[in-house]
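Team,

Forwarding the record for the chain on the shared tracking sheet. I've put the sequence and predicted structure together so nobody has to dig through attachments.
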Amino acid sequence: MSTESVAIRRKGALLDIVLDRPENGNLIDQPMSDAIIAAVTTIDDDTKLVRIVSSSKDFCKGRQSPMPPQGAKPSAETLRRVVAAPPLALYDALKAVRVPVLSVVRGEAIGVGCALAGVCDVALAADDAIFQIPEMERDIPPTLVMSALIGRVPVKTVAHMVLSRARLTAQDALVAGLVSRVVPVASLDDEADALADTLLGCSAVTLRAVKQFLHLAPDMSAAGSSGFAAHLAATALSARF
């Protein structure tokens, strides 16, 4: 499922999700969100990697939120359903993808864009990338974005970004644990392709085992994670025989 604002492209075992709304900085709207969710929740057994990229100079400058018109008095339940639930569904879908998810970030990653970068398993950033969570400038608690980052980014990093509304450079984001690696903007596409090729060189079962461990082990006890590690390794190795 693609829309005019997001392209879903399959290249062998790679599923590319291309944010393609350059006229407004790739603001995520509901059709884009629905297309991404549909793509990542219906991947087949041959898919090894999902990659989220931008077709333009900015990764994603936020969300086109369906806020009620001025003067309306919606109930809390209406706001939860219309405003809060859709981005949470997007973040949950990306977290639950069975294979690794790679974000390739250039330019601005603001609000939802920052959350999209953070929720991915690996985030490759150009050295011109900027990350910000500015919602409190409008006196809005950005708990939806925070929900995407908590557990993946250090709590103090999330707190600093939310409360200060600071604009983090790519290097700041690397130090803070928000991205995995920073590369020169001129070589971002080549670096992203090289990383994708490295991952695609592994079997689907191995990549899924790594993704399962990354997703579930942090909430397990030490003994539980050890047992889970042994189970995943044995299952992956048994697929070779």
